Amino acid sequence: MEKLRVNEQRLWLTHVEMGKIGALPNGGCCRLALSDEDKMGRDLFIRWSREAGCEIRIDAAGNIFARRPGLDNSLPAVATGSHLDTQPHAGLYDGIYGVLAGLEVFRTLNDAGIETQAPLENIVWTNEECVRFSPPTSGSMVFTEQLGIAELHQAKTTDGTTVGQDLQRLGYLGDHITMASHKIGCFIEAHIEQGPILEQQNKTIGAVTGIQGARMFEVRVTGQDNHAGTTPMPLRRDALTGATRMVLWLNELVADQGDDIRLTIGRFNVSPNSASTVPGAVTFQIDLRHPQMTVLNALEDRIRMGLAEKARQAGLGLTIKDICAFAPVAFDGALVAMIEAQAVASGYSVMRMLSGAAHDAGNLAALVPTAMIFVPCEKGISHNEAERATPGDLAAGANVLLYTMLSRAG
Amino acid sequence: MEKLRVNEQRLWLTHVEMGKIGALPNGGCCRLALSDEDKMGRDLFIRWSREAGCEIRIDAAGNIFARRPGLDNSLPAVATGSHLDTQPHAGLYDGIYGVLAGLEVFRTLNDAGIETQAPLENIVWTNEECVRFSPPTSGSMVFTEQLGIAELHQAKTTDGTTVGQDLQRLGYLGDHITMASHKIGCFIEAHIEQGPILEQQNKTIGAVTGIQGARMFEVRVTGQDNHAGTTPMPLRRDALTGATRMVLWLNELVADQGDDIRLTIGRFNVSPNSASTVPGAVTFQIDLRHPQMTVLNALEDRIRMGLAEKARQAGLGLTIKDICAFAPVAFDGALVAMIEAQAVASGYSVMRMLSGAAHDAGNLAALVPTAMIFVPCEKGISHNEAERATPGDLAAGANVLLYTMLSRAG
Q1: A193 by DSSP, 3-state: which?
Q2: Range of the structural domain that residue A366 is part of
Q3: Is B1 part of any domain?
Q4: Please, what is the average pLDDT of chain A?
Q5: What's the CA gap between A293 and A214, in Å, rounded?
Q6: Contact check, Cβ <8 Å, A384/B225
Q7: Residues B207 and B224 in one domain
Q8: CA distance A195 to chain B (A)
Q9: Closest to A251 (Cβ–Cβ): which among B196, B231, B241?
């Protein structure tokens, strides 16, 4: 008998269809968390999931749980999923693939008439990306009780609303639920790698052993607004010049920290941001990542001291606010081994690897056996409209997900 | 008989009243050109001017001409005025003072029952500040035919509207008029200095002899959006790091150019401006000023070459767009001398000086005898909520304006 396989073309066309919501001119899409586009993406996901026989539950963080009932629904669910929200200039796969791979697994099981002992769940986590509001992976943080629901509801979005208001407005504000009342037996997240390693190593499947640690800080540099035409250069307290010195110093600081270090200043806002005014304030965010906690601790100390020194030298004010911190995560050894074994059994090349990016799976790992399945993306490009993955690789990852879930669901 | 004087308290309270529109928490105000607040300020100005017996005319650029008729209205008007639009974190005086001083002159003449041979005009020019749209001093540029009215109407605002749409929406879109059909005999603009010189020299009145030259360029630096967690540092094409190198190089470049040089990067925008994405693009604006054309020319050449070199070294794309250029301006010698004489006759200390900031008067100077009257502002602080001027200094400037206008209007 032929081995059961997901439908490669259906999985691909599902991505194409979802990518039409918030479509961008260069082939990417933009569905910022809890925007109108995000709502449309969510609505579409729910329709597809219901058509695939799922029951839908929405929690107070806006997380969507699409449940395919099992023969014994008292068993904890074997769960998969990821996120549908995107970066501003995103591709069609980051997060989305994990959700649509889960859907394709359900459709494939339906087509084959397969029922499982344990129920299966496909979960859409709210705001993995942290564009309109903080922190990243907020939905899975709430579910795993690492973030209070009240704190999330009060968080301000870049549009001046609160997350609570947005959830209400979009019709995605459900009851608060956690692992205590909603049992999950394990969590397996499929995702594009978002890095160049699988492509370089010519492997189809990454069995992800863990996630590097990440910390984010918000730095505010304050000087004085003044007139561009009349204020002599030596009398200025120019926050932008001061902040640019800090940015370059941060880049120099990590230059000798080896291959695993990542330091990014992705958000950088100047105030009042007017052409003829010496800028009185700059706020920027530092995203620092490394697999080792000791390295992160040492760098954080050096960054705090170094920025304070730079501000002092320039006569500028400085505040540094913690935005979030993710400890390095180790995934469940047995689940990683199962992913590896299922990849081999399905005839795919596979390698163990670490995730450079944070994922919702990192939050789940503290409470249940968790692992991730990576598939290659072209040149490692992600958070970019040029993000690409092949139909064959996406199907390969979904097949490994299918068999890994079946191995756990009985 | 006592010498005619403006009403110091009335002038002061008029500033206080205008400052309530778009009031900010720290005592300043924000009335961006063609915003709802700007409309409210304009409406109030028109009401006050009508109450002072003025006829109102509005042109296609939204400029407001408040005319106090003379005994012989075939004579060209003796004109004053400035602007009511502000920077985002502005004080109560920059621009506003020139308009309200003109109004106070009219009120003072009314109180004394004085009629002039020539008509007087008090003009509110549109968008001196260049915050919501370019170029700066756009209203006076259109009136003096240095900017086409169609070009202004098509200009995009930072809110995504066009200037034409905004004028229409606010009810400030009149017929296109220029000096050819609307005759002005001279233009005298009162303004706070926006620099520290009068205060340092302990003078009340500055008789402004001209304006330094200014050029603005928009620089766009392009790299590649990518994921903050997965993209190794050496493989990044980070537009923000590249742009910060440029900003620091520009500051170094002008460090040995003497006291008269001004280089400001006031507007600086990062794209996609998301914490977990390596920025793929930065757009920033350079505001370069100096009293000598030769220095501006030499620096512009060095800037173009230097930035191209920096971009090449970093593997980044670069475009440089001209935003505007103002040649150094020399004001009318006879008018400057008259301002000086009237200051002395009124008992005020006076000095000749150059303007560090661009002003609408700079555009008028090409067509009619033009000059400016400066009064001190505290510590030279401007484009800032902490901008301050004293009631006595504001009245002194208005008295000099009164007598200079009378000397020309007969």
Answers
A1: coil
A2: 8-212+328-409
A3: no
A4: 96
A5: 9
A6: yes
A7: no
A8: 5
A9: B241
**From the centroid of its chain, how far is CA B238?**
35
Q: What is the CATH number of the domain that holds A342?
A: 3.40.630.10
> Domain with B297 in it: what CATH number?
3.30.70.360
Q: How many CB pairs under 8 A join A and B?
A: 266
Total tally of structural domains belonging to chain B: 2
**Among residues B310, B326, B342, which one ends one of the domains?**
B326
Residue ranges of chain B with pLDDT lower than 50? none
A287 → closest Cβ in B136, B233, B276: B276
Chain B interface disruption, residue of A127, A219, A244, A329, most B CBs within 10 A = A244
* Domain assignment present for B392: yes
% of chain B residues with pLDDT over 70: 100
Is A179 within a domain? yes
pTM for the full model? 0.73
Do A380 and A319 have their domain in common?
no
Residue A382 distance to chain B (closest CA, Å): 5
**Rounded to the nearest 5 degrees, what angle is found at the Cα of A160, between the Cα atoms of A155 and A165?**
60
Domain limit, last residue, from A275, A305, A326: A326
Indicate yes or no: CB of A272 within 8 angstroms of CB of B244: no
ipTM, two decimals = 0.73
Burial B293-330 (b: 16+ CB within 10 A, else e): eebbeebbeebeebbeebbeebebbbeeeebbebebbe
**Which two tokens mark A130?**
């942290």
B303 and B403 fall within a common domain: no
A241 contacts B229? CB cut-off 8 A = no
CB contacts of B193 in chain A (<8 Å) are 230
- Tens digits of per-residue pLDDT, B227-277? 898 888 988 999 999 999 999 999 999 999 998 899 999 999 999 999 989
Give the C-alpha separation, B135 to B138, whole Å.
Answer: 6
Domain annotation covers residue A55: yes
**CA–CA distance, A53 with A114 (Å, rounded to integer):** 13
**Bridge partners of A8?**
none
Q: CA of A400 to nearest chain B CA: how many angstroms apart?
A: 23
**Number of Cβ within a 10 Å radius of residue A256:** 7
Sign, CA dihedral B349-B352-B356-B358, equals: positive
Residue of chain B minimizing CA distance to A224: B384
Distance (Å) from the alpha carbon of A321 to chain B's nearest alpha carbon: 14
Tokens matching residue A394: 């996406």
Question: Is A349 found in the same domain as A290?
Answer: no
Residues B170 and B246 in one domain: no
Give the residue from A276, A288, A289, A382 with the most B CB atoms within 10 Å of its CB, the best one to mutate.
A276
From the list B235, B357, B383, which residue is nearest A225 (CB)?
A: B383
Instruction: Search chain A and give the residue with CA nearest B270.
Output: A268
